Amino acid sequence: MKKALIILGVVLMLFSISGCKKDEGITVWSFTDELDNMIHNYYVPAHPGVKINYSMTPTEQFPSRLDPVLASGRGAPDAFALEAAFVRKYVESGLLLDITDVADRNRHKLLAYPIEIGTHNGRVYGMSWQACPGAMFYRRSIAQKYLGTDNPAVVQSYFTDLNKFMETAQLLKDRSGGSAVVVASRGDLYNVFLGARTQPWVVNGRLVIDRAMEAYMDMCKVIHDNRFDGRVGQWSEGWFAGMNGALRDESGRLLEAFSYFLPTWGLHYVLKTNAPDTSGDWAMIPGPAPYRWGGTWIGAYRGSSNAAAVKQMIEWLTTDDGFLERWARDTGDFVSNMNVINKIKDTYSEPFLGGQNHVAAFAEMALTVDGKLVQGTDQAIEGLFAEAVTAFVEGEKTKTQALADFRQQAEIQLGI
After folding, report:
1. What global pTM score does this model have?
2. pLDDT, tens digit (0-9, with 9 covering 90-100), for 139-148
3. I need a labelling partner for 372 at 20 to 30 A (CA). Which of 25, 212, 296, 345 fits?
4. Which residues of 191-226 are buried (b: 16+ CB within 10 A; e: fewer)?
């Protein structure tokens, strides 16, 4: 009897060490059903016996749900999705599982920038299955009318850099009598300028305003004063109206919105969704500078008792060639695995873009994106900077005063 009790005690001890989570399964939290689809329709069928407990919370509520459980360790999920706006907050937190070994095994076939964003102090804490390089989408009919061509290679020559962009904005205005605006919203250019920076927002604990961001302020002012844009905000009713050729200025005059700056997902979930009747009248070019916009990463709690199983799941979802090829073909998502992209990129012809191969074009753009400047404080800093830009552009403050107030608010609110 004593021997039996000892054996039972050892079994219970081993069960405790391994953690009851093995029976309970892996807990995954997210703010999007995209990851749910990947897990339950691809990962679980390919890994019989694996149990995933999936929970979804709206994006705006997600950090406030995740923060306390990660900090306390009580009720923390094994793995969780991280949106581009706040991924660095968690990567820099010290609360995530180190997955450098996963990244190192697969770097040879993955785009650099998603791993760069998931890296802190030389260690990797987040990985993504996708990449979101940005492009400049333009209306072929408007290009033909005012530039004499809708050929992407030729149209790109009008937008090779930011100076050419402004010259062409003036050209469109002149040739159209003011009805053609180069963008519906000046806000479309924000990510382009972020991508043109050489320094992050914070260096050695001090706020840095890169020259590219000052140039953004100046360009926004010129665009606004010269009516090169439709004077509407991104995601506003007017912004969407411009996609359908229905944007009007404050006097009721119909404006022709020439272009929109959008990432990979912008084609499928913005243009196609909101302007289906314009199918075939769009094309895409790199535009004046490389940039990225959005994306979802996967991280894991450093205290997870399922670390090995979680790492296996993250590695499969973010790197596996077979799965990511199926995912890319099934959903149209642009994946970060270049083995997959190079295999499938020449097989596409997008009717919405007049037959253009958008995957091959994005494959080239993705190689130029830099993820090394992203920091955890970016979202808060950029919110304050946007206020400064608006105050300057709309004449409420001089540029000097707007920047001074921006610095002051960054110090007061963020201690930077």
Report:
1. 0.89
2. 999 999 999 9
3. 345
4. bbbbbbbeeebbeeeebebbebbeebbebbbebbee
